[in-house]
Amino acid sequence: MKFSKLLVAMFAGAISFGAFADQPIVIKFSHVVAQDTPKGLAANHFAKRADELTKGKVKVEVYANSTLYKDKEEMEALQLGAVQMLAPSLAKFGPLGVKEFEVFDLPYIFDDYNELHKVTQGPVGQQLLAKLEPKGIRGLSYWDNGFKSFSLNAPIKTPADLKGKKLRIQSSKVLEEEIRALGGLPQVMAFSEVYQALQTGVVDGTENPISNLYTQKMHEVQKHLTMTEHGYLGYAVIVNKKFWDGLPADIRGQLETAMKESTVYANKIAKEQNDKDLDAVKKSGKTEVYVPTKEERLAFKKALVPVHKKMESRIGSEIIQSLYKETGFNPGAL
Ligand code: LMR
């Protein structure tokens, strides 16, 4: 991030908090997706409820679509206090040094949202959030998005169709290994750069929940989308710990309520948004949507589940086993 940009942002942040008693407390909430995505809508919902519950004492400024910071920058900005709140995808915590979060990237570890919620709304999810504290970050909640599918400019029916293809991924070592397991070439890239990279052929394809594919118009530059639903993409809502702990207790309580309500809202709309966007992709006529047969799905599973074992030494077998226990996943049952 440019130093000058950061300084300006930090200065603004310092002024916004506590300098003038009658001024509202400003929470800058930066994210990288469009407004009409599960995360975008939930962030706006939180801003509205925070305003209502604190009676205008807190103003949440939401910056969507990487307008303030891109993926990597936003994590730095949060730690430095230049923004106060983010909701990065769980795949983006590895570079921060909290590798356990990459457990969420393991292919096929969740069959559906119910299995996911056993983790994100249970003790394992809380234990993971606690690991952010030494980084100066407080994890408040998990917000759903959805299950990722592969897209390309050629049909995808078998794992071999991805062989040799350059595929954009988020900054997760598990996702790198996932692409390698398919014989593809993983390319880590900021979300804001993906559309152009697909358009210009810098990468051949990518993986996304449909809400992200559609709202970034990636379907306009990808002729084929196969509903592999091979992995999960969702978020942890995080705040700068020092900022959060420094808030007056009554205000923090009201914001916690706003966050609880926004989490219920986020997790209610996530599937609806993805279903709606899938319909829109189909209607656009720009991308052919293919649903794999049971056998084709099994072939992808067989190719990708070995990634669990391979990544055990990085993520930790304890956390993997605790997820298996919650979800009932059995890697030997294929
Ligand atoms: C991605 O980089 O593909 C996603 O993490 C973007 C997002 O925040 O959903």
* Residues in β-strands, percent: 15-25%
Basic shape: globular
- List cofactors, ions and other ligands: (2S)-2-hydroxybutanedioic acid
Strands, count: 9
CATH architecture: 3-Layer(aba) Sandwich
The total number of structural domains is 1
CATH superfamily: Bacterial extracellular solute-binding protein, family 7
Structural class of the helices, strands and pairings?
alpha/beta
Which stretches of 5+ consecutive residues score pLDDT under 50? 11-16
Largest sheet: 9 strands, mixed
Which CATH class applies here? Answer: Alpha Beta
Radius of gyration: 20 Å
Describe the protein's architecture and organization.
With about 325 residues, the protein is α/β, with parallel strands linked by helices. The chain has one domain (about 5-334): D-Maltodextrin-Binding Protein, domain 2 (3-Layer(aba) Sandwich), CATH 3.40.190. Helices cover about 45% and strands about 20% of the residues. The chain has 14 helices and 9 strands. It has helices at about 5-15, 40-55, 70-80, 115-120, 125-130, 175-180, 195-200, 210-215, 240-245, 250-285, 295-305, 305-310, 310-315, 315-325, and strands at about 25-30, 60-65, 85, 135-150, 165-170, 185-190, 205-210, 225-240, 290. Strands 1, 2, 3, 4, 5, 6, 7, 8 and 9 form a 9-stranded mixed beta sheet that branches. The longest helix is centred in the C-terminal third of the chain and has 36 residues, at about 250-285. The structure holds (2S)-2-hydroxybutanedioic acid (LMR). The site of (2S)-2-hydroxybutanedioic acid (LMR) has 8 residues, from loops.
